[in-house]
Write a structure and sequence with these properties.
The complex is a heterotrimer of chains A (492), B (425) and C (338). With 425 residues, chain B is mainly α. Chain B has 3 domains: 52 residues; 215 residues, MetI-like (MetI-like fold, Orthogonal Bundle), CATH 1.10.3720; 77 residues, no CATH class. In chain B, 64% of the residues lie in helices and 8% in strands. Chain B starts with a helix and ends in a 5-residue tail after the last helix. By secondary structure, chain C is α/β, with parallel strands linked by helices. Chain C folds into 2 domains: 205 residues, Periplasmic binding protein-like II (D-Maltodextrin-Binding Protein, domain 2); 96 residues, Periplasmic binding protein-like II (D-Maltodextrin-Binding Protein, domain 2, 3-Layer(aba) Sandwich). In chain C, strands 10-9-11-8-12 form a 5-stranded mixed sheet. In chain C, strands 4-1-5 form a 3-stranded parallel sheet. Chain C has a two-stranded antiparallel ribbon with strand order 2-3. In chain C, strand 2 and strand 3 form a beta hairpin. In chain C, helix 3 crosses helix 9, helix 3 packs antiparallel against helix 13 and helix 9 crosses helix 13. In chain C, 57% of the residues are buried. The chains are: A mainly alpha (492), B mainly alpha (425), C alpha/beta (338). Chains in contact: A-B, A-C, B-C. Chains A and B meet through helix 1, helix 2, helix 12, helix 13 and helix 16 of A and helix 3, helix 5, helix 6, helix 12 and helix 14 of B.
């Protein structure tokens, strides 16, 4: 017989609020910050470290002076505002010299050209980086366009005394608006067409940066046309390798012997061109980007060949590739730079000296080619063996298999690696100061400090340059991570 | 078989060199070889012509001439009367010591940060992410300069350590004092640490002008012998354990074998520490470690550590979650799980990128020139080059040395890597 | 991808352009531009300003030379060189001359195959110390830590000085001038040593200049001057006499402002020869008659250049000292123009 219960609950209790320690911010803090003695200790140490850093640097940063004409004036202003003995940053230097950090000694009235080249670079890169994805392409083109136009307007406004501020600047602005609007439209309607811009970009970028006669870049491009024609005509008879070789030889003859005469003649008939800028006027981040981007772009074909050579069955080719890669990877970049500045004069024919920036770019290209080769080798190794076998089964020859099956996949996998190579190289461009070029970190800073009014300035240039470097490299590494995630998804 | 036999035997034609895949590779290789040799010959010829035009020669005799400059950090005896060749070795040892300690320090930092980045502690993991991202995305050159400047700006000047008679009378203490039981003095020009000193040293033997300290050699030999005996002891203990299931107590024997002989040896030689003391402008006595060394070491370790941390994190993430769960199921705590289960497995993924980071670190020591750390680049590729004007010889020698260094490191690490490889049966 | 080959063609065309005739003078004339190896940045002597125009005491020599040879003081390209790259840049023909505070020494002149054609600044190595140190002579610096820039003759001088006085020191090598200044100010070294001109420039810009003294000892001779390649004496002569024209101009009282007036009114035959009014000195070294006049008009005579860039009127405030004319007790002395 059931005993009579004193009380039986018939209905559910309303759920109680969780205890204070188990909800909201407190729970989060308990779980994430103070979950154990070690964690508590780490949290306290971490917070303390942040506090100390902020405490020591913040007043100096906040006391910063933006309007002054010299270091002494900065010191006076800080002393007047915050009392004797207070220290403060002298951002006035950045205000006066920012353009040297960005463009070096590039003529001020021509600042629109590197700005334009920089903006167009993103448009040219978009189809490569985002694999012809229409929306992203268009968005990137549009954003690059808007930013470039804003930058152009900013540059023109900063130098009203130069031509850029007057009509020509207005015209350049208008031209930029038209160009970017057109490109955005192309990106929207036929994203694949943007690849044409990508292929032409080296010539366009070169022309925008260096200027001079328009026939130079046209002649150089004509060399590629000649190469393509010779290759196509002889491929059937001679096979890929020999045909390429023949094409390269003919093109080289064109570039080395014929081109200068033809372009010279064309220039005298139709003197089209703009003001020429010497490469020793390049400096600051312009120089860093020119060296970094050119070296990476130019080292790609070389890196691909080296990577293929390293996997080749032919012992000699393999040995040469391995030797080159290991040699370059075994010596510090500084020695390569000093080779460019000190030793190249011994290795090249007598009295052949071309400018230092070009020599540095060539040596840095070799340097990055070795690293790119290793990245691409990684990509090649990551391809499943079945891909190679399938290509063989289809009866493709070596070059067809590489071109149609292997490389498109291997390169795609390698893009994150290539981007991180670029980040590394971009940071390493700061070393060119050691051979006397005006890199942003040390070269331009030294120039600024040599001016009597800014002698003795120390932290400000480093902070300014460091922040720009961080912004560039951080965004690139984020992009590379995004790409890695995306590629991972693709492979599943 | 019959089918193969029925193929007519082809006679060799010249065009087969290009079209026949059997011969084509030889053709290509010979062509490449000829081109390569021609290229080398061209370079050599240019060099000879250029040298003749400049009325110069390739001559390494400058290595035996008086250097005339001083180096502030020297691991082997060197004065400004020594030769350029000796300056080269001073520089080389300076490079090696930074690279060596840098690799060790960077590995510690990298593993520590890599593990902590995956920590559940919000502040810590964010801080570590911030550390990794800032260091990876800002040029190393800037970090080296910054660390160096922080050292020389924040540390006290040597005169702040001085307690003058008036200050003692007034009961004041000096503005700065030595740390670690009054033994290490960090000033704005360097760190002075105590120097181990022997009253009855065993003397020196000079090999190639480099004095070799016999006491150190003897001590190292003694340690090696002790470690070997200890190994034998442990092996024996293990054998007994396998045999009987009972592990004999060995820890005190181990301690005895490892420490007593060396302590007795040092005592016999009269070991004591020489502490730095403030005399004149500077601290005298003890070992003075210049800030250029410390700053380069710290900056390069922090920078490389950020990259190693990423490699470590990648390695840990590559180990499947099941391993952790299995370990928890066995009752291991998170710390032990990481140490005994995850890290050993992750090591195989981590080691290859680690090797390239070590290589990078070694090569990056050349950036010490920004703060005038006189490494190989500073002596041979810097001052010697400048004083003698022998750029070709100096640069070639320097490249060769770095190349050999890199090859030694990568081959050494490759041996380690093979040993670490998962032994699949 | 295309860029590599394009740069290659560029290199090739530059390479072809590089083959030119033997003499530097002809090269400069053919190029229409003087390439002057300058400092990467040294206060008062050579550094680009906010607009990228090079200014300074050394730079003025380049300008005068360009005016003399090419007729336009602005046709100069400045190639910044570091301590390591400067002589190589000159030897390889990358620059036509170096005007970059380089010390004239025996081994540089002979072993490095360079020619120092003149001395535009007589310098010497000195020491700067903080007043609190209580040091009044460099010989009291026994045991001191000394900041010194690497890669120059200063380290050799320093080692020699301490050796000959039988005292010891600890060197703190620094990469450049601004680094040395910061280290010195932070107290990381007791003394800072470099050329006296550099010390003065540094001291002038310190926030508390009155607390720092420059010790009386000058421990070395540092004759600084323009350098050309060995074996091209004609070009060396052009540089040398252009420089002496500036010195002679100061002696004769020809200034940038009064040059036309002097040319119209002078009776002094040497002045006439310098200004190309009499005889044809220019032709003897491959220039036209008026080279001297243009050189002086470019940035004034030696005294004016000194006063404008590093003299007592500027914030660097160097006294003429050894660099006064010989008539005023200095060493600047131009051989006769005859």
């Amino acid at each position: 017989m059931p005993t009579k219960a004193a009380f039986v609950r018939k209905d559910m209790l309303a759920p109680q609020e969780p205890p204070v320690s188990e909800r909201g911010a407190i729970k989060w803090a308990r779980e994430n910050l103070f979950s154990g003695p070690l964690n508590t200790f780490l949290t306290i140490v971490g917070v303390l470290a942040v506090f100390l850093i902020v405490k020591s640097a913040l007043p100096w940063l906040l006391n910063g002076v933006w309007n002054a004409n010299s270091m002494a004036e900065c010191r006076e202003i800080v002393a007047a505002r915050h009392g004797e003995g207070a220290t403060g940053a002298c951002w006035a230097m950045v205000r006066e010299r920012w353009h040297q950090y960005l463009f070096g000694f590039y003529p001020q009235e021509l600042f629109w050209r590197p700005t334009m080249a920089f903006g167009l670079m993103f448009v040219a890169l978009a189809p490569v980086l985002y694999f012809g994805n229409r929306t992203i392409n268009m968005r990137m083109t549009a954003v690059a366009g808007v930013l470039t136009i804003l930058a152009l307007a900013g540059v023109s406004a900063s130098f009203p005394q130069t031509i850029a501020g007057s009509e020509a600047g207005g015209l350049a602005l208008l031209a930029a608006v038209i160009v970017f609007a057109g490109l955005t439209a192309v990106a929207w309607m036929a994203p694949r067409r943007l690849l044409i811009l990508t292929l032409l970009y080296p010539a366009i970028g070169f022309y925008l940066l260096w200027g001079g006669s328009i026939w130079g870049p046209v002649g150089a491009l004509a060399g590629f046309a000649i190469l393509a024609v010779v290759y196509n005509l002889t491929k059937a008879q001679l096979g890929v390798v020999v045909a390429t070789g023949a094409g390269v030889v003919v093109a080289a003859i064109w570039w080395l012997v014929v081109q200068s005469h033809v372009t010279g003649a064309l220039h005298s008939i139709l003197p089209l061109g703009t003001a020429h800028v010497d490469s020793d006027e390049f400096g600051g981040f312009l120089l860093a980007f020119v060296i970094g981007v050119t070296a990476i772009a130019a080292s790609l074909p070389m890196g691909i060949l080296l990577a293929l050579g390293r996997r080749s069955d032919m012992p000699l080719i393999k040995a040469l590739s391995v030797g080159f890669i290991e040699f370059i990877r075994g010596v510090p970049l500084i020695t390569m730079l000093f080779t460019a500045s000190l030793l190249l004069q011994y290795f090249l024919p007598p009295r052949s000296n071309f400018d230092l920036i070009l020599r540095v770019i060539i040596l840095v290209t070799f340097f990055s080619a070795a690293y790119i080769a290793e990245v691409i080798r990684g990509g090649l190794a990551a391809l499943p063996r079945g891909q190679y076998e399938a290509a063989d089964a289809l009866g493709l020859d070596y070059w067809q298999a590489q071109r149609l099956i292997v490389m498109p996949q291997a390169l795609k996998i390698s893009i994150p690696g290539i981007v991180s190579s670029f980040i590394g190289l971009f940071k390493d461009t700061t070393l060119v100061a050691l051979v006397g070029l005006h890199d942003p970190l040390q070269g331009v800073t030294k120039v600024v400090r040599a001016a009597i009014e800014w002698k003795g300035i120390y932290w400000e240039p480093y902070i300014f340059v460091g922040l720009i470097f961080f912004a560039c490299c951080f965004s690139m590494s984020r992009y590379s991570m995004y790409l890695e995630r995306k590629l991972k998804r693709d492979h599943r | 078989m019959a089918y193969v036999a029925s193929v007519p035997k082809e006679s060799f034609r010249l065009s087969m060199l290009v079209y026949d895949t059997r011969y084509r590779s030889y053709t290509i290789q010979i062509a490449v070889l000829i081109l390569f040799l021609a290229f080398l010959g061209w370079l050599l010829n240019n060099t000879i012509v250029n040298l003749a035009a400049k009325d110069k020669d390739i001559n390494f005799s400058f290595l035996f001439q008086r250097a005339g400059y001083d180096i502030d950090q020297q691991l082997i005896p060197y004065t400004n009367d020594s030769t350029h060749g000796r300056a080269l070795f001073v520089g080389l040892f300076n490079t090696l010591i930074v690279a060596f300690f840098g690799c060790i320090l960077a590995t510690f930092i990298g593993v520590f940060v890599g593990v902590l980045r995956l920590s559940k502690n919000w502040v810590v993991s964010r801080l570590m992410t911030a550390y990794v991202e800032t260091f990876r995305n800002i040029p190393l050159l800037l970090w080296i300069i910054l660390v160096f400047v922080i050292f020389s700006e924040t540390a006290p000047a040597p005169r702040d350590f001085r307690a003058t008679d008036e200050m003692v009378a007034a009961g004041q203490t000096p503005a700065a004092s030595k740390i670690f039981f009054d033994s290490i003095a960090v000033t704005n020009r360097g760190t002075n640490i105590p120097r181990p000193f022997l009253d009855h040293p065993l003397g020196h033997v000079s090999v190639l002008d480099v004095p070799i300290n016999l006491s150190v050699v003897a001590a190292l030999a003694l340690i090696a012998v002790c470690v070997w005996i200890n190994r034998r002891l442990l092996a024996h203990a293990k054998a007994v354990q396998e045999e009987t299931g009972i592990r004999p107590v060995v820890w005190w024997k181990s301690l005895l074998i490892l420490f007593v002989p060396i302590i007795v040896f040092l005592y016999a030689l009269g070991f004591h520490l020489e502490y730095p003391e403030l005399k004149g402008f500077n601290f005298q006595g003890g070992i003075n470690v210049a800030h250029s060394f410390t700053a380069l070491l710290i900056a390069i370790s922090l920078y490389t550590g950020a990259f190693i941390a990423e490699a470590v994190r990648g390695g840990i993430l590559a180990i499947s979650r099941g391993q952790t769960e299995a370990s928890y199921a066995l009752g291991l705590r998170p710390g032990k799980t990481m140490r005994l289960i995850i890290l050993p497995q992750a090591l195989r993924v981590i080691v290859p990128p680690l090797i390239s980071q070590y290589l990078n670190l070694t090569k990056n020591t050349t950036l010490g020139m920004a703060i005038s750390y006189l490494d190989l680049k500073g002596t041979l590729g810097g001052i010697t080059l400048n004083q003698t004007g022998r750029e070709l010889e100096c640069m070639l020698l320097m490249m060769a040395i770095y190349l050999v260094l890199s090859l030694i490191i990568s081959s050494g690490m490759n041996v380690f890597n093979t040993a670490m490889k998962l032994k699949e049966r | 991808m295309k860029k590599s080959v394009m740069l290659g063609t560029l290199a090739a065309s530059a390479l072809l352009a590089g083959f030119a005739s033997a003499g530097t003078l002809d090269d400069v004339k053919a190029r229409g531009e003087l390439i002057c190896g300058s400092n990467t940045g040294l206060t008062g002597f050579g550094a680009p300003d906010a607009n990228g125009n090079y200014q300074g005491f050394d730079v003025a020599i380049c300008k005068a030379l360009a005016a003399a040879v090419l007729g336009d003081a602005n046709k100069v390209k400045y190639v910044p060189t570091t301590g390591e790259t400067r002589f190589t840049a000159l030897a390889s023909g990358e620059v036509d001359l170096l005007v970059r505070n380089s010390t004239w020494t025996f081994s540089r002149d002979n072993d490095l195959k360079l020619d120092f054609v003149a001395v535009n600044y007589y310098d010497g190595q000195g020491f700067m110390v903080h007043k609190d140190l209580g040091v009044s002579s460099a010989k009291e610096l026994d045991g001191a830590t000394i900041c010194i820039q690497t890669g120059t003759t200063t380290e050799l001088n320093l080692a020699d000085f301490f050796k000959s006085n039988n005292i010891s020191y600890t060197p703190v090598t620094v990469a450049d001038d601004s680094e040395a200044q910061r280290q010195y100010l932070a107290g990381a070294c007791d003394a800072f040593t470099t050329d006296a001109s550099g010390l003065a420039a540094t001291r002038a810009t310190l926030p508390d200049a009155e607390n720092h003294i420059i010790l009386p000892e000058i421990i070395s001779k540092e004759p600084l001057g323009p350098v050309v390649r060995h074996g091209d004496s004609n070009w060396g002569d052009v540089v040398r006499w252009t420089y002496y024209a500036l010195v002679a101009a100061e002696e004769k009282g020809i200034t940038q402002a009064n040059i036309e007036e002097v040319a119209a009114s002078t009776n002094d035959p040497e002045v006439k020869r310098i200004l190309g009014l009499e005889g044809d000195l220019g032709a003897m070294m491959g220039l036209d008659k008026e080279w001297g006049k243009r050189a002086i008009a470019a940035s004034g005579n030696y005294g004016e250049i000194f006063a404008a860039n590093i003299g007592e009127g500027t914030s660097i405030g160097l006294a003429r000292g050894l660099n006064a004319l010989y008539t005023q007790g200095g060493l600047q002395y131009a051989p006769p123009f005859r």
